[in-house]
Amino acid sequence: MSVPCVAVARERGETVRSRLADADALDGDHQIAVDGDTIYIPVAGRDRVPADLTDRVVERDAEARDRPTTPAEILGYEPSLERLGDIVIVDEDDDERANAIADAVMAADLPCETVLNRASPIEGELRVRQWDVLAGNGTETVHREYGHEFLLDVAEVYFSPRLATERHRVVEQVESGESAIDMFAGVGPYAVPMAARGADVVACDLNERAVEYLRENAARNGVADRVTAIAGDVRDLADSHAGTADRLVMNLPHSADEFLETAVALAGDDCVVHYYDIQHEDDPFGPGRRAIETAAGDAYAVEVETERVVRSYAPHEYNVCLDVRLTRLDG
Question: Among 8, 22, 91, 131, whose Cα sits 20 to 30 Å from the Cα of 324?
Answer without folding.
Answer: 22
